[in-house]
Amino acid sequence: MTHILLVEDDPAIAMSLQVTAKREGWQMTWLDNASSVLPMLHSLDNAESQDLSAIILDVGLPDGDGLNLCQQIRHAADINSLKDIPIIFLTARSDEVDRILGLEMGGDDYCAKPFSPRELVARLKAIWRREQLSSQQAKPQDAEQKLDNEDQLVKQTAEQAITFEHSSGHWYYQPLNYTLTWNEQKLELSNTERKILLTLLHAPNQVFSREQLLNAVSDYPDHRLARTIDSHVKSIRKQLATLHPDIDVIHTHRGLGYALCP
Known about the structure:
CATH architecture of the largest domain: 3-Layer(aba) Sandwich
Order of helices and strands: EHEHHEEEHEHEHHEEEEHHHEE
Largest sheet: 5 strands, parallel
Structural class: alpha/beta
Number of helices: 10
Strand content: 15-25%
CATH superfamily of the largest domain: Response regulator
Oligomer: single chain
Number of domains: 2
CATH class of the largest domain: Alpha Beta
Helix content: 40-55%
Strand order of the largest sheet: 2-1-3-6-7
């Protein structure tokens, strides 16, 4: 059964989402504070952690910041099996910068309050659909079809790894565990960051606009927030620079978008 962890301090929102989850046939565990989350995740055995399908995380919690909590989940070595679990933020903050920050800190998507439970369900299913596609054999695509999942990008089965040779070095992607390495060094990327980088690697001579990259990583792109791509690219560059500060990988084409450096 699909199991979702909901971290939300508003009982009315929690009740509404629990009703929706039950209607979908999902199990939902509700916590109303940040301090209970990591102990709860640590208590899961391997089978239980494998059954956990997503975390819905409120940004504004009474005893902590949901953004920092997301980062702790992503980097907790003792719950390594959950480091790639989909995380969707619930946020009452209308500032675009706060939403971008959530994506930079490891979130996969967000819903701005007030929101429809049906929208949240749709966003969860979109994330799961992309994960499922990435574990199946890639299907042929015509020139008009957008690159909207990793399966299409690598055109390999989930059991097969793929390598990219580029002037920046050797890249190796293992779809089975979503691992991307650069010159034999593992990259700790969010799902969105990994998909952006794979999109660029798949077409090293192509300049991708922000809108094209947004389409490549989301089934429900909000083109008003295409600038979030800038933040993701900045985060990718920062991590790459810690590994090889003397190598430039992503080039900005002003007014056009991004491409791999030649």
